[in-house]
Amino acid sequence: MENQYTYYTPEQNNMEPKPKKQHKVPKWIKLICAALVFGLVAGAAFEAGSFAVGRLLGNSQETASGKNVKEQQLESMKLNTSSGGKVTTDVTEIAHSSMPTVVSITNISIQQVQSFFGGVYEQEIPSAGSGIIIGQNDTELLILTNNHVVENSDTLTVSFIDEESVSAAIKGSDASRDLAVVAVKLDDIKKSTMDEIATATLGDSTELQVGEPVIAIGNALGYGQSVTTGIVSATQRKLEGFDSELIQTDAAINPGNSGGALLNAKGEVIGINTMKASSGSSSVGVEGMGYAIPISDASEVITALMNRETRTKQPEGEQGYLGIQPTDVGSDAAQMYNMPTGVYIYEVIKNGAADKAGLSKGSIITKIDGIGINSVTALREQLQYYRPGETVKVTVQVPSKSGEYKEETVEVVLGTDS
Nearest to residue 362, comparing CAs of 377, 380, 343? Predict the structure, then answer.
């Protein structure tokens, strides 16, 4: 192997070699000298090697501190670990301040289920969603959510950031806008929980721009609160079944996120997470398409729901009835026949509540006491909170001879199912 040293010859040092006299040396002296030279060279090489190895690997020589080199090096060896510093981002701070404003909602409904043998039995069906604390009055904490999170509920439970759970009641809901406000009695909430929770700050969704960062918080899959991030993918999206335009985002929106908060970079609520696109039976996969109701578009409905009287469901047989035969006018039928979305009255029962109030066949019910109605299910859901003899304001679209519809509001004294 070629070494890296440079050897200087006498010519390079400008030195002329002097001729030497030749002396004959006995052979036995040559052997002794050769042995001596070999021993000296070997000893020097061994010492040099020992010194080099000692420098590199450590040996048992004593140091000035009294400890040998090897022991000293072993004691100074440490694992290369993190210093333990926390990583903080804008998302971290927003999540920390906003998660106390979001709750988990559990809806338990009693549904009839057909058994394997053809019989029918009742079964409790639980479902999970989210909500946003938006304020309180003298006696109640008010929580915003989606109508589909709380509809058909027999029992509602709200769980806060500290995992404390309390019973809740629907203060008001609007099926046509998929909005609802849930109320929890302040007396039912522990002081320690009140110290942990907070009221959300609402932003201006009309100022949203495509590409703007957003954060979604909610009870995904019913596992408890979680945080996802993304951007505003689009605004003013129109989807079937929604009266309002929606915000599209690529922040993950999963079952259980419904009713939760979509936040901007300031931590303000700019949307209510409501649904995600899925491939269903289509062979085309869908990724990153979630939707939220813009908070500014919903503010008028939310205010109306917040200021309603909190009602409890009436027992079966003690609920008020309109006295009509209804059917749905869905979005497809409304578009095809140029009709309003709502509940079509195809028969008015003689001497029933609707007949006495002057409601006519062919009219379409769109609101009950100012709450949007878009299906027979939604109509029955609202009427469960009223007793016979109570008066409700029914908003209907009445067809004219020209085929156009005119809005009217009629007061109806509810009757019995007889």
Answer: 343
Measured distance CA(103)–CA(166) in Å, rounded: 11
- By C-alpha distance, which of 205, 231, 229 is closest to 217? 229
Tell me how far CA of residue 384 lies from CA of 4, 144, 303, in angstroms: 97, 21, 22
Is the CA virtual torsion 295, 298, 303, 308 positive or negative? negative
3-state SS of 110-126?
EEEEECCCCCEEEEEEE
Cα 112 from Cα 110, distance rounded (Å): 7
CA distance 164 to 144: 18
Round to whole Å and give the CA distance between 96 and 116. Answer: 48
User: Which three-class secondary structure state does DSSP give residue 405?
Assistant: strand
What the block records as the tokens of 69 is 């080199």
Per-residue pLDDT of the chain (418 residues; tens, 9 = 90+): 443 433 333 333 344 444 444 444 444 334 433 433 344 444 444 444 444 434 433 444 444 444 444 444 445 556 555 556 676 678 999 999 999 999 999 998 876 667 666 677 677 788 899 999 999 999 999 999 999 999 888 899 999 999 999 999 999 999 889 999 999 999 999 999 999 999 999 999 999 999 999 999 999 988 889 999 999 999 999 887 777 899 999 999 988 999 999 999 999 999 999 988 765 544 456 778 999 999 999 999 999 999 988 888 888 889 999 999 999 988 778 888 888 889 999 999 999 999 999 999 999 999 999 888 989 999 998 999 999 999 999 999 999 888 889 999 999 999 988 6
374, 377, 378, 381: CA torsion to nearest 10: 170
Both tokens assigned to 282: 């289509």
359-388 CB burial, b ≥16 within 10 A, e <16: beeebbbbbbbebbbbbbebbbbbbbbbeb
Catalytic positions are 148, 178, 258
Q: How far is CA 124 from the centre of its chain?
A: 26
Query: What is the SS3 assignment for 54?
Result: helix
CA-to-CA distance for 393 and 177, rounded, in angstroms? Answer: 19
Amino acid 134 reads: I
* CA atoms of 182 and 74, how far apart (whole Å): 65
CA angle centred on 187, ends 184 and 191, rounded to 5°:
100
Entry pTM: 0.73
